[in-house]
Write a structure and sequence with these properties.
- With about 120 residues, the chain is mainly α.
- The N and C termini lie far apart (about 25 Å).
- The protein contains six helices and no strands.
Length: about 120
């Protein structure tokens, strides 16, 4: 049940951002990081996914709105750690997805805060 709730939060987060203009450049760049994550998860190549996760984490840190800077940092740390492992060839696709799900379950509160902000403020 907890995993289903987490999956719902992640899907809400990813659905909240898509390409499109936003009133502020930083907001657009922040939202674009979530688009990178969504696209990367569709890749079946762990290194490609890892590269995108690391890049998205850097963008999230750089462009996080002040209201969610701390929880965004937690989320970015998770993505970066999983991404670096994938880049190093230490994971296959199922392991990558499991590591991401496990990490998100441990940080559900912060991820939920970011998901709510993204769903309200990123273009759909």
């Amino acid at each position: 049940m907890r995993r289903l709730c987490l999956v719902f939060v992640v899907l809400t987060l990813l659905a909240g951002c898509s390409s499109g203009p936003s009133p502020a450049s930083a907001s657009t760049k922040f939202c674009a990081a979530f688009v990178k994550v969504k696209a990367a998860k569709a890749s079946q190549i762990p290194k490609t996914t890892g590269d995108a996760f690391v890049a998205a984490a850097a963008d999230m840190r750089a462009y996080a709105p002040a209201a969610i800077k701390a929880p965004t940092s937690t989320y970015a740390d998770l993505l970066e750690n999983v991404g670096q492992s994938a880049q190093a060839g230490g994971m296959d696709e199922p392991s990558l997805q499991q590591a991401l799900a496990t990490g998100m379950a441990d940080k559900a509160s912060d991820i939920a805060k970011v998901a709510v902000w993204v769903s309200k403020n990123c273009p759909r």
